[in-house]
From TrEMBL, chain A:
<protein>
    <submittedName>
        <fullName>Thiolase family protein</fullName>
    </submittedName>
</protein>
<dbReference type="InterPro" id="IPR020616">
    <property type="entry name" value="Thiolase_N"/>
</dbReference>
<dbReference type="InterPro" id="IPR002155">
    <property type="entry name" value="Thiolase"/>
</dbReference>
<feature type="domain" description="Thiolase N-terminal">
    <location>
        <begin position="24"/>
        <end position="179"/>
    </location>
</feature>
<dbReference type="Pfam" id="PF22691">
    <property type="entry name" value="Thiolase_C_1"/>
</dbReference>
<feature type="domain" description="Thiolase C-terminal">
    <location>
        <begin position="257"/>
        <end position="369"/>
    </location>
</feature>
<dbReference type="InterPro" id="IPR016039">
    <property type="entry name" value="Thiolase-like"/>
</dbReference>
<dbReference type="Pfam" id="PF00108">
    <property type="entry name" value="Thiolase_N"/>
</dbReference>
<dbReference type="InterPro" id="IPR055140">
    <property type="entry name" value="Thiolase_C_2"/>
</dbReference>
<dbReference type="GO" id="GO:0003988">
    <property type="term" value="F:acetyl-CoA C-acyltransferase activity"/>
</dbReference>
Length: 381, 145
């Protein structure tokens, strides 16, 4: 019988670091990644030579980005693997590092996500099967169609959906690592550049450059390296899935529903026990759909909870206190890793002005093109 | 005048199905498991994995019901070849549930000023998309009435 993460050795996140997510610049990717790694090592209080393996999440850098960067920390000869899984590349890298630690193959692993915007041809355009208008339908239109469907079904106005962006920009304004660090009014968001359907520019995530790193370790490593146990947050669930035939409704929401349910079952908790979560809100509509898919409320009701402040920092469950993809940004490889780092800070009580007080249980969720889905649960021991 | 050329003849035909003769048909397929899909392919069935001859061409009627729409305001894509007009913003994309089963997404025409409610009956139509003398036609969907 297959095991889950919780059946194996306990896995802990003990350090997090970032290079700010920002618009494309001249900065080489190496100089995005190294500060994030050095930050995570310092946060964990360990040395690079303590790291036994590296998982590098990246979608856009191209082949073999890792060693050319990591050698500047001192070439230790330890194993390195690159993981591409579209928007969920960083989340996938984190999952596989956790599996290695849980299995006892290593005691200390680094997860690093680095990306810079670049032209990478999406493989699904090379399958040899074309479609009616694949040159006219990009992701923002996919989500504009889902917004229209949701709005019609539940009688929700476009200005209500845009409230997600108001909240997430407000959170991002408190995050020094965020791509967008400016509070925005509903009028600014609705009055911005129209993109597709009712989506405006500030309701769509910025895809820039940046880096995020976390250190995952075993209990043995915590003891051996003298890591402060109060600095350790346990990973109690890791679930992953891909789109399946016959699912009802939009694939993004249906795989979210299934994968979050599996993660909550692994962690043996219910959706209302989550204090803080980082969701894949690449577009405003997604936050509403995913909150509903995970069972926090019934379909069509998320907007009411949002208006009541239930998803604010300090509310019933802080949703994307980092600013989410909409404000923190979505540089692809770093995104899923940065979510884990944000949860680690929140659960340790180290999130500063965006701290959700008393946070004990955190959930990170990413969807990647394909579609694939990743969900992790982190808990303060 | 030369006869019209279809932009994507592997995806649709000018002739309709027996059920809906007046609107272009779509080249879909059906698996022996019963799954109906679009576009036609023989790589393998998305439901059961059967491949090759288990997947047979099935012409789908160009008729369906509207699920959702989005009018696109930003578009950077280039046309597939120089003889074809680029998509000029704003243009409207629709999701349509075909009466034969599959859901397709493509450009809509004839929707200006019309209320595009979910469930609106939609039909396939061919529109000229060429830039020069040659007549090139591409498939769109439009409200049935």
């Amino acid at each position: 019988m297959a095991k889950t993460l919780k059946d194996l050795r306990p896995v802990y996140v003990v350090g997090a670091g970032w290079h700010r997510y920002q618009p494309l610049s001249e900065t080489p990717y190496v100089m995005l990644g190294l500060p994030a790694i050095r930050g995570a090592l310092a946060d964990a209080g360990i040395a690079w030579t303590d790291v036994e393996s590296t998982y590098f999440g990246t979608g856009l850098l191209g082949m073999a980005a890792g060693r050319a960067m990591l050698k500047h920390l001192g070439a230790t000869g330890r194993p390195l693997v690159h993981i591409e899984n579209a928007s969920a590349s960083g989340s996938a890298a984190f999952r596989h590092a956790c599996i290695e630690i849980a299995a006892g193959i290593a005691d200390v692993s680094l997860v690093i996500g680095v990306d810079k915007p670049g032209v990478v041809q999406r493989a699904f355009t090379k399958t040899g099967i074309s479609n009616l208008a694949d040159d006219a339908i990009v992701p923002f239109t996919h989500f504009a169609l889902l917004t229209n469907e949701y709005a019609n079904k539940h009688g929700v106005a476009p200005e209500d959906v845009a409230l997600v962006a108001v909240k997430n920009h407000r959170n991002g304004a408190l995050n020094p690592h965020a791509h967008r660090q400016q509070v925005r009014t509903l009028e600014e968001i609705l009055g911005g550049r129209p993109v597709s359907g009712t989506l405006t520019a500030l309701q769509c995530c910025p895809v820039g450059e940046g880096a995020a790193a976390v250190i995952v370790v075993s209990e043995d490593a915590i003891k051996r390296l003298g890591i402060d146990p109060a600095h350790a947050v346990r990973v109690t669930a890791s679930a992953a899935s891909s789109e399946r035939a016959g699912a009802v409704g939009a694939a993004d929401a249906s795989i979210t529903k299934d994968t979050i349910a599996e993660a909550l079952a692994q962690a043996q908790i219910g959706p209302r026990q989550i204090d803080v979560m980082e969701l894949h809100d690449a577009f405003t509509i997604e936050e509403l759909q995913y909150v509903e898919a995970m069972g926090i409320c019934k379909p069509g009701e998320a907007i009411h909870l949002l208006k009541e402040g239930a998803f604010d920092i300090g509310g019933q469950c802080a949703v994307s206190p980092s600013g989410g993809l909409i404000a923190m940004g979505h540089p692809i490889g770093p995104t899923g890793v940065g979510q884990i780092g944000e949860l680690a800070l929140q659960l340790r009580g180290d999130a500063g002005p965006r701290q959700h007080k008393g946070a004990k249980v955190g959930l990170a969720h990413m969807v990647g093109l394909g579609a694939v889905c990743y969900v992790h649960v982190l808990q303060r021991p | 005048m030369s006869p019209s050329e279809l932009l994507k003849p592997t995806l649709y035909a000018a002739e309709g199905t027996a059920a809906v003769p007046d609107h272009p048909a779509l080249h879909g397929g059906k698996c022996t498991c019963g799954h109906v899909f679009f576009p036609m392919q023989t790589y393998g069935c998305e439901v059961c994995g059967r491949n090759g001859d288990a997947l047979q061409p099935l012409r789908l009627s160009g008729r369906g019901k509207l699920i959702a729409t989005a009018t696109v305001h930003i578009h950077a894509g280039k046309p597939p070849k120089p003889e074809v007009k680029p998509h000029e913003v704003p243009f409207t994309i629709g999701s349509i549930a075909l009466e034969d089963g599959p859901t397709v997404r493509t450009l809509l025409v004839g929707v200006a000023g019309k209320a595009l409610k979910p469930g609106t009956a939609m039909v396939a139509t061919l529109v000229p998309v060429g830039t020069g003398a040659a007549s090139i036609l591409d498939l769109r969907f439009t409200p049935a009435s």
